[in-house]
Design brief:
Length: about 325
């Protein structure tokens, strides 16, 4: 038996197990990318079709967002699955038509029931189009060279796995900068209402906290990668990479890198911003004795609130960019 298929699909015959096999095309966009969908977190990412075709058939794909690993055939998007199901439905209809046609030709009947069947030409339905999220930016993995695109924060390459810590940090800081820039496009009346509610203040504080977290993760990852035995050195030191001077002491002693001595790094500003973040996380944003020990030139007094502005957050991002590039070597 042969099957009629829509444009974009073809009948490939039977496999060794006797199953009917079909090939269904998955079209790429105008940039050469096509979609993949993680079976666990169900987030969409895109890969360049030419790069994908060159990969081995037994490829284990990694979700860029959650890091789930599974056979690449499991990362089919819902729209791609609809194309596959359309071909399967058409094939099933033709199999049914063939079976009923056989009944009709045999003229089966008895005194109670007579079965007749008149075959009709079968025309396969067109395959559904794919209209998935469009490419925003092409990324190229520095490890394997694969081209891919994501639509959210990610830490993995679809092929080579975990990304370099420096690359993750740059992406995260870039996202924080873009978030602050987006606030400038909010219309005036809405800005006034959000400002009155303290939304911009909260965003500035949250951004500062996230910047500190980015630096901490990068500093730890690089130290553990480059220093042996890092585990023994860091034992009992707690969140040492949240404390700037302790971080600098570690890098200076074990990697001969002292960020305090780099001209582009404003260490005084950094320590003030880090102390501000600590006060907002642990003291409700109020000045305490620990803050004044670090920022001993401050005119604020214990119990006063430390205001964090958008400029403070932007300065933290700029300084963190420099600091991360130094720590990553």
């Amino acid at each position: 038996m042969t099957f009629r298929t829509a444009d974009g699909a073809s009948y490939e015959g039977r496999d060794e197990s006797g199953n009917e096999t079909f090939r269904v095309s998955i079209p790429s966009d105008e940039h050469g990318y096509f979609g993949r969908e993680c079976p666990v977190c169900q987030q969409i990412f895109r890969m360049h079709l030419d790069d994908y075709k060159a990969l081995p058939d037994d490829l284990i794909l990694t979700c860029p967002y959650c890091g789930h690993q599974e056979e690449h055939t499991s990362f089919v998007t819902s729209q791609q699955q609809e194309r596959v199901m359309r071909v399967a439905q058409d094939a099933a209809m033709q199999l049914i038509s063939e079976a009923l046609g056989g009944l009709g030709r045999s003229g089966r009947s008895n005194k109670f029931v007579k079965i007749t069947y008149r075959s009709m030409p079968f025309y396969p339905q067109p395959l559904p189009d794919i209209d998935e999220e469009q490419l925003v930016r092409e990324r190229t993995c520095v490890t394997c060279g694969i081209r891919y695109a994501v639509f959210g924060e990610h830490s993995f390459c679809p092929v080579s796995g975990a990304l370099d810590a420096g690359e993750v940090a740059r992406d995260a800081l870039g996202a924080e900068a873009s978030k602050l820039s987006a606030l400038d496009s909010i219309p005036g009346p809405q800005r006034a209402a959000l400002r009155e509610q303290g939304v911009f203040d909260r965003i500035a504080v949250d951004t500062l906290s996230r910047v500190v977290g980015v630096v901490e993760r990068l500093a730890r990852a690089e130290f553990e990668r480059r220093v042996e035995p890092a585990g023994q050195i860091l034992k009992g030191k707690g969140n040492v990479f949240q404390r700037l001077d302790d971080l600098a002491d570690l890098y200076s002693a074990h990697l001969d890198i002292d960020p305090r001595l780099v001209p582009d790094v404003d260490w005084v500003l950094l320590t003030k911003l880090w102390a501000t973040r600590h006060a907002h996380v642990h003291a409700g944003g109020l000045v305490d004795t620990k803050y004044l020990q670090i920022v001993n030139y401050s005119s604020l007094k214990v119990g006063q609130r430390i205001v964090v502005t958008a400029d403070d957050a932007r300065n933290a991002i700029r300084q963190a960019m420099i600091l991360c590039s130094i720590l990553a070597g």
